From TrEMBL:
<keyword id="KW-0479">Metal-binding</keyword>
<keyword id="KW-0414">Isoprene biosynthesis</keyword>
<dbReference type="InterPro" id="IPR058578">
    <property type="entry name" value="IspG_TIM"/>
</dbReference>
<keyword id="KW-0004">4Fe-4S</keyword>
<keyword id="KW-0411">Iron-sulfur</keyword>
<dbReference type="InterPro" id="IPR011005">
    <property type="entry name" value="Dihydropteroate_synth-like_sf"/>
</dbReference>
<comment type="similarity">
    <text>Belongs to the IspG family.</text>
</comment>
<dbReference type="GO" id="GO:0019288">
    <property type="term" value="P:isopentenyl diphosphate biosynthetic process, methylerythritol 4-phosphate pathway"/>
</dbReference>
<feature type="binding site">
    <location>
        <position position="305"/>
    </location>
    <ligand>
        <name>[4Fe-4S] cluster</name>
    </ligand>
</feature>
<feature type="domain" description="IspG TIM-barrel">
    <location>
        <begin position="5"/>
        <end position="245"/>
    </location>
</feature>
<comment type="pathway">
    <text>Isoprenoid biosynthesis; isopentenyl diphosphate biosynthesis via DXP pathway; isopentenyl diphosphate from 1-deoxy-D-xylulose 5-phosphate: step 5/6.</text>
</comment>
<dbReference type="GO" id="GO:0016114">
    <property type="term" value="P:terpenoid biosynthetic process"/>
</dbReference>
<comment type="function">
    <text>Converts 2C-methyl-D-erythritol 2,4-cyclodiphosphate (ME-2,4cPP) into 1-hydroxy-2-methyl-2-(E)-butenyl 4-diphosphate.</text>
</comment>
<feature type="binding site">
    <location>
        <position position="263"/>
    </location>
    <ligand>
        <name>[4Fe-4S] cluster</name>
    </ligand>
</feature>
<keyword id="KW-0560">Oxidoreductase</keyword>
<dbReference type="InterPro" id="IPR045854">
    <property type="entry name" value="NO2/SO3_Rdtase_4Fe4S_sf"/>
</dbReference>
<dbReference type="GO" id="GO:0141197">
    <property type="term" value="F:4-hydroxy-3-methylbut-2-enyl-diphosphate synthase activity (flavodoxin)"/>
</dbReference>
Length: 354
């Protein structure tokens, strides 16, 4: 059962309050480069991103938000550190959300100026605590980075905003260490009802980062913790979005695109399952309709799995059978199996098949 949190809105996108878990990512272009940033945001939207964050290291980047927003439809969150004036400029430019640590953008009066402007525009603030930037006093108090230290840091900032009568708050407490991150979110979820943005920060590149993120996010989401997620990978942000959707689909929390089932193969297999499954997977990446596809290699589990899928194939010696909604529709040579499976999916009216 998902943890019930207060709702906040980034533009028209609801976070928390029983809304579906929202997928977000972050651009990796200089925000001041409007053309490249707009192009990347459009690619992210096509991949399924629902909220996008942009770095705001300087005034030029903050002002660029207005131009970017005029050309994209996704809500934009401005990521600000150290200078409260950048947060104010981002809000003036139309940012739909802020990500910051109130404690590192100046004294209380500077924080109040940001809070007042955010309240005026009804813009949520995400308190983003990271293990790599834990306050020195908390590091000393706990003898290092601990889950308790991360949570105390977050609550310190929450209290600061609450004292200013501001409650449009989201929170994250991220680390690259999976058990540490999981424990921090578990503790935090017991202390507040604000929506939580969850992720494993600096997870790494490719498969390594994906495994860390899947384990950490999978544990938290399965326990009902998390209202919005980012899979933080070194590389193409569109891959982050694809990975986030796969995690949500596996847990039964959202539906988008294909679920691909393929057998691990064994000595009974008489078709090239790996080549077929890889080709089918590659050419179905743009499909957004929820559809279950099976690629099976032999007569043991193959026919049964293929019948349970929306569409699938089961191989034999040099040939295979295509199934659609549990019924065999054609028998084809092994070398044609991938093409015939994809053709059958097109015949079902599924768009996005390459």
């Amino acid at each position: 059962m998902r943890r019930l949190t207060r709702p906040v809105f980034l533009g028209k996108v609801q976070i928390g309050g029983g809304a579906p878990v929202v997928v977000q990512s972050m651009t990796k272009t200089p925000t001041r480069d409007v053309e490249r940033t707009v192009a990347q945001i459009r690619s992210l939207e096509e991949a399924g991103c629902e909220v996008v964050r942009v770095a705001v290291p300087d005034l030029e980047s903050a002002r660029a938000i207005e131009k970017i927003k005029a050309r994209v439809s996704l809500p934009l969150v401005a990521d600000v550190h150290f200078d409260y004036r950048l947060a104010l400029a981002a809000l003036e430019a139309g940012a739909d959300g802020l990500r910051l640590n109130p404690g590192n953008i100046g004294d209380k009066e500077k924080i109040r100026k940001v809070v007042d402007k955010a309240r005026e525009r009804q813009v949520p603030i995400r308190i983003g605590v990271n293990a790599g930037s834990l306050e020195k006093d908390l590091y000393a108090k706990y003898g290092g980075v601990t889950a308790e230290a991360l949570v105390e840091s977050a609550l310190r900032h929450v209290r600061l905003l609450e004292e200013m009568d501001f409650r449009l708050i989201k929170i994250s407490v991220k680390a690259s260490d999976v058990p540490l991150t999981v424990q921090a979110y578990r503790l935090l979820s017991q202390k507040v009802d604000y929506p939580l943005h969850v992720g494993i920060t600096e997870a790494g590149p490719g498969d390594r980062g994906l495994i860390k993120s899947a384990v950490g996010l999978g544990i938290l989401l399965a326990e009902g913790i998390g209202d919005t997620i980012r899979v933080s990978l070194t590389g193409d942000p569109c891959y982050e979005v694809w990975a986030a959707w796969e995690i949500l689909k596996v847990l039964g929390l959202r539906k988008r695109g294909i679920e691909l089932i393929s057998c691990p193969t064994c000595g009974r297999c008489e078709i090239d399952v790996l080549t077929i499954a890889t080709e089918v997977d590659r050419r179905l990446r743009r499909v957004t309709a929820p559809i279950k596809v099976a690629v099976m290699g032999c007569v043991v589990n193959g026919p049964g799995e293929a019948r349970e899928a929306d569409v699938g194939l089961a191989g034999g010696r040099g040939w295979g059978v295509i199934f659609r909604h549990g019924c065999p529709v054609k028998k084809v040579p092994a070398e044609r199996l991938a093409e015939e499976l994809l053709a059958t999916i097109r015949e079902m009216g599924i768009e996005g098949v390459e």
